[in-house]
Amino acid sequence: MTRKRIVLTVLHRLAVLAYVAFALFPLFWLLKVSVTPTSLLYTEGIRLWPSQASLEHYRFVLTHSSFPTFFLNSTIVSGATAVIVTIVASLAGYAMSRFVFRGKYWIVGLLLLTQMFPLVMLIAPMFKMLSPLGLTNSLTGLVIVYVAFNVPFATFLMQSFFDGIPKDLEDAAMIDGATRFTAFRQIVLPLTLPGIAATLGFVFTAAWSELLFALMLISGNQATTFPVGLLSFVSKFSVDFGQMMAAGVLALIPACLFFLLIQRYLVQGLTAGAVKG
Amino acid sequence: MQKIATRLEPWLYSAPVLILIVAIMLVPLALGVSYAFRDIRLLNPFSGAFVGFKHFRELAGDGAFRGALVNTLWWTFSSVILQFLFGLILALLLNRPFKGRALAQALCFLPWAVPSFLSGLDWAWMFNPVVGPIPHWLYALGILSEPSNILSDPETAMWGPIVANVWWGIPFFAITMLAALQAIPKDLYEAAEIDGAGPIERFRSITVPFLAPTMAISILLRTVWIANFADLIIVMTNGGPADRTQIVASYIFTQAFRRLDFGYASAIALVLLVLLLAYSMLIVVLRQTMLTRH
Q: Is residue A127 assigned to a domain?
């Protein structure tokens, strides 16, 4: 190993470390504030860890608030959205990647258009459309809206993953008598698993974070999602930052867990794909 | 018969997406456009009359709107450039094997899983001198003359949401770029190395061309997305102080939710829509000319 190489390796590790620190510090801070007792919150504001940690905020949030319900609602909405979007978008992404057909540019244009316009523009018409159908104040209504919002980007994402897979494999299968849909399902989709995982992760996270439409469409406690719950929590309990951050940490858990699962899979999948390719 | 089936095939694959988009995005979009020319106030059952260009005339004399336009440019381009640069660097760092890479990658991508408005709250908290560390660090470095909240200073407030946005958005670019990087066949690099190409030459003639399509589409989509992205600003500054962080998207939100004036909000949204469409057209045309030149 030459001297230059050692220096480069050290620089590389330092850079990675800097990224990790930058990514984690705000989350560490969230955790730190959430375990700081209210009495110490302001006196020990900038210490890296409070002299005395407590779970009082968590206890309050879990027993004296509707947070467990919000939590469940958000999980249902995000999970359903992610699954539906991924199925629908892989079909369309495959069409975009494999077929040359009249109207394709119109579809691409349409998908791009949906990425251009300010979603806030849709809030009022959406409310007026969903209300007579009984889809306001319902998780189903939210899923429908979130699926539509996430489908265009997911389609582009899936298309780019399909583009990376050679056509020869499915062509060979189709020469051997398989229908295109069979070839798609049994040959192309398994090769795209990292892409599917990435899409699921993207969409789940996006649905989990959505605030504006949930705010507009949901007004009762039964169907409240986590972001709306946290905001009403803030106004209801006169901004107790410790409790707010504790609620935030709790709501972070499923998103992070889901992400870490996907993440591990993403690494494996990408590496396997690279080896095979 | 066979021929018709083959022709229909791509449409069958695309049908679910098309139906969803038309029914749940285009129909309400058309309604929203019509609202821009009508007097629509959510809580007023007597509103709904056609008012022509009244909202747009109002908009022309609206100083807050002009300020928001400038802020939108500033917010969008600094966020996208920083996210892209740091994301690309991160992807390149993670693309070479080292011990603990899987863990480092998972940790670096974690901000992406944080709900956007929660990261807004988190960063607002970090910038708060009473409980956050950042003002004290900036003071110690001599950047601030006293440990104050940069979010309440009109000159610096915009940096708050931008920093939060960069933190939150780096993983998006890093994930996309890393996936594209790992799809580049390894033998290309080996062949180039055998031919005597140095690392810079290999990066220029293999990595960049392979990444270019992914870069182009992710930057285009992200720019538009960030221009419309109001959550962080709403949560961190609510457009203040003195409208210095108000972007067009957050201004629409303010009009719609504080004044419940959906007509005026839709008119602003329509202007934003036209501007964003113009931007995308420009990019598409530029890309086409570059492609034909090659």
A: yes
